[in-house]
Amino acid sequence: MLKNTDFNYFPAVYVVCGYTDMRYGIDSLAAIIERKYKVNLFVPNTSFLFCGRQSTKIKGLL
């Protein structure tokens, strides 16, 4: 999915450090961002990346 992505479209990319349960859905991931990092989710063209226990998988909120 990210192979054809133009990363110039995303001026801000946040990498959430630490283990994130990959079973979490959009609402749970959004709550982590708002509660723990106090970042506004609704800034246009912002991407949030989460890494699971296995470093071979990432999940992103765009």
What key phrases describe this protein's structure?
single chain, 62 residues, alpha+beta, three-stranded mixed beta sheet, 1 helix, 3 strands, globular
Structure, explained:
- With 62 residues, the chain is α+β, with helices and mostly antiparallel strands.
- The protein has one domain.
- It contains one helix and three strands.
- It has one helix spanning 26-37; strands spanning 12-19, 46-51, 58-61.
- It has a three-stranded mixed sheet with strand order 1-2-3, covered by helices on one side.
- The longest helix has 12 residues, at 26-37.
- The mean pLDDT is 85.
Please outline what is shown here.
By secondary structure, the chain is of the alpha+beta class. It has one helix at residues 26-37, and strands at residues 12-19, 46-51, 58-61.
Strand content: 25-35%
Largest sheet: 3 strands, mixed
Supply the number of structural domains: 1
Q: Whole-number average pLDDT? A: 85
- Tell me the structural class: alpha+beta
Helix content: 10-25%
Strand order of the largest sheet: 1-2-3
Which parts are unreliable, with pLDDT below 50 for 5 consecutive residues or more? none
Gyration radius, to the nearest Å? Answer: 12 Å
What's the β-strand tally?
3
- What shape does the CA trace take? globular
- How far apart lie the N and C ends? 12 Å
Q: How many helices in DSSP terms?
A: 1
**Strand/helix succession:** EHEE
